[in-house]
Write a structure and sequence with these properties.
- This protein is 33% helix and 27% strand.
- By secondary structure, the protein is of the alpha/beta class.
- The protein has a five-stranded mixed beta barrel with strand order 5-8-7-6-9, surrounded by four helices.
- Helix 2 packs parallel to helix 5 and helix 3 crosses helix 6.
- The protein is globular, with a radius of gyration of 17 Å.
- The chain starts with 15 loop residues before the first strand and ends in a 7-residue tail after the last helix.
- Bound molecules: hypoxanthine (HPA).
- The site of hypoxanthine has 11 residues, from strand 5, strand 8 and strand 9.
């Protein structure tokens, strides 16, 4: 079996998949954290791996950048590979004044300027939200690990380079951070009856012209990755009874 974008056989993915945007980050996690990791996808270099972490089967599959790319990969994982839960692990730009470089944000919900929801032909505006089970378990795990996290709204944008001054307006609405994949992930999960959460490390604060160095991004990414992996272990002992 394969899909238009993934070459794995059914059963090659674990019920829980971590999704960094960058394929090399997927490879880094597989090589440094997973035991017995097997490469399950290399179509377009969008690397995916499955292995175990503390005895729990976990997959890591790159999503690429932006909603169209995340939309494709998360759809195929949910619908064709029986994946139950996807945790995106990525970077975000800090928007709220209280958000600092290297903070970890758990995306409780995701506002967007994208038309992704138009396909569902709803008679109003859909509000994409994280799975409560994943959000709660991740927040609890962060507390146990001693990693402070922020929980709140994300703004999922179709544009990295944007001509409009809209970030200031999103800031007035208390949105914590900007990234480019969470809304499509949350909508795909909702439509599939599955679970999703977006965890982001703040790599830059565009409204204050601040950004992290590559080394700082790596440290921030390590904490977020450990948080996601430890959460996967915690979730494995629970059944997905509510989302
Ligand atoms: N904009 C969009 N996505 C991002 C940003 C940003 O400033 N930083 C990290 N991901």
């Amino acid at each position: 079996m394969s899909t238009p974008h993934l070459e794995g056989e059914k059963g090659d993915y674990a019920p829980i998949v971590l999704m960094p945007g960058d394929p090399l980050r997927a490879e880094f996690i597989a090589e440094n954290y997973l035991i017995g990791a097997q490469c399950v996808n290399n179509i377009r270099g969008m690397l995916g791996f499955t292995g175990t972490y503390k005895g729990v089967q976990v997959s890591v599959q790159a999503s690429g950048m932006g909603m169209p790319s995340m939309g494709i990969y998360s759809y195929e994982l949910f619908h064709f590979y029986d994946v139950q839960s996807i945790i995106r692990i990525g970077t975000a730009g800090g928007i709220d004044d209280s958000v600092q470089l290297r903070d970890i944000i758990l995306g409780q919900a995701s506002c967007t300027n994208s038309n992704y929801a138009q396909q569902y032909q709803l008679s109003g505006t859909y509000a994409p939200i994280a799975s409560f089970r994943l959000l709660r378990k991740t927040a609890e795990t962060a507390e146990k690990l001693g990693f402070p996290v922020r929980v709140g709204n994300l703004y999922c944008s179709d544009t990295f380079y944007d001509d409009s001054p809209s970030l200031k307006q999103w800031q007035k609405m208390g949105v914590l951070g900007i990234e480019m994949e969470s809304a499509a992930l949350y909508m795909n999960a909702a439509r599939a009856g599955k679970e999703a959460l977006c965890i982001c490390t703040v790599s830059d604060c565009p409204l204050r012209n601040e950004s992290t160095s590559a080394d700082e991004r790596q440290i921030g990414f390590t904490n977020m990755m450990e948080l996601a992996l430890e959460t996967a272990v915690q979730l494995s002992s629970q059944t997905a009874s509510f989302t």
